[in-house]
Write a structure and sequence with these properties.
This protein is α/β, with parallel strands linked by helices. It contains eight helices and seven strands, in the order ααβαβααβββββααα.
Length: 302
């Protein structure tokens, strides 16, 4: 991934948006989370935020998170990256030192489709491992937003994986492919010896959607789309979330001002839960942790 990260670092010096975007306005850097009453919505909330997860494991950053911004003025970009760092640290993600190669990148562009096409032509590595159908879905999904992650698997000991083929024991002619990591076979009793890690997370936002959006909102939205593989089902969440910021018909002034208690509890639970569990088991753990976290909030703020 070093070459790909270097490419992203170089990409930060290009002008995909052809200039800064004035619509994003500065906001206080204090982390504010909105409280709401806790209902029996945790299961639905977690389920919707992880619906688009591919494969048998949820992913997250295992390496230090290094945010970067393209398409905004230097001052706004610095405010947003600082805010991303603060929120990421608050939810338990490891954050890189200031001079680092970006792996969580916000791209502010004039046209989402054109930007994706430019990336595909000039830096195809940012789509590595993605199916053509998934790339087309990014292009064709309505709205001013696109977000995706590149992920890979490593052993639970942090070492690269080795693939082996075993002969079947049922008399069939099909060989069985097994992942070995650190000498252990994955998928034993629901605890896997491999982990899915995010290598790169990209969030694209069209500049035209940023009218009345402040830097805190934009940064926190990027955190939720970048630290977790949240997807299309986030539109109909059962509880308040910064992910509602760009929903159709939602004014930025009426949207949450920042990550909500629900967002905070979800990300904190994701980054505290074991990344060696199968997706279904990890979802269950996240639900339990979220419920516990939300119960700490005063009733009048839920």
């Amino acid at each position: 991934m070093s070459a790909l990260k270097l490419g992203i670092a170089l990409l930060l010096g290009t002008a995909l948006a052809h200039g800064s975007v004035a619509q994003a306005t500065a906001a206080p850097s204090t982390i504010v989370v909105e409280g709401h009453r806790l209902h029996s919505k945790v299961d639905d909330f977690v389920g919707r935020l992880t619906t688009d997860v591919k494969g048998d494991q949820l992913g997250r950053f295992l390496e230090d998170v290094c945010p970067g911004v393209v398409g905004l003025s230097d001052n706004l970009a610095q405010d947003i990256t600082a805010r991303i760092r603060r929120v990421a640290d608050a939810v338990g993600a490891d954050v890189a030192k200031r001079k680092c190669q970006p792996n969580l990148v916000l791209l502010v562009v004039h046209d989402k489709q054109n930007a994706i096409k430019q990336l595909r032509a000039g830096l195809p590595g940012v789509f590595a491992g993605m199916r053509v159908a998934d790339i087309h879905r990014l292009l064709e999904t309505p709205g001013p937003i696109a977000a995706w992650q590149l992920s890979s698997r490593i052993g639970a000991d942090g070492m690269p994986l080795m693939m082996v083929r075993l002969s079947p024991t049922d008399g069939s002619n099909d060989a069985v492919q097994v992942v070995r990591a650190g000498g252990f076979i994955s998928g034993v009793h629901g605890v896997m010896s491999v982990m899915r890690q995010f290598d790169l997370s990209l969030v694209i936002v069209e500049a035209g959607a940023l009218d009345q959006v402040d830097t805190r909102q934009l940064a926190d939205y990027t955190v939720m789309r970048g630290l977790a593989a949240t997807g299309s089902q986030a539109v109909n969440l059962p509880a308040p979330s910064i992910l509602q910021l760009f929903n159709p018909g939602v004014s930025p002034l009426a949207a949450p001002e920042s990550v909500t208690w629900w967002d905070y509890a979800f990300l904190k639970s994701l980054y505290r839960s074991s990344n060696r569990r199968e997706a279904s088991a990890q979802r269950s753990t996240i639900r339990q942790m979220m419920t516990s976290e939300l119960k700490k909030i005063p009733v009048e703020q839920r």
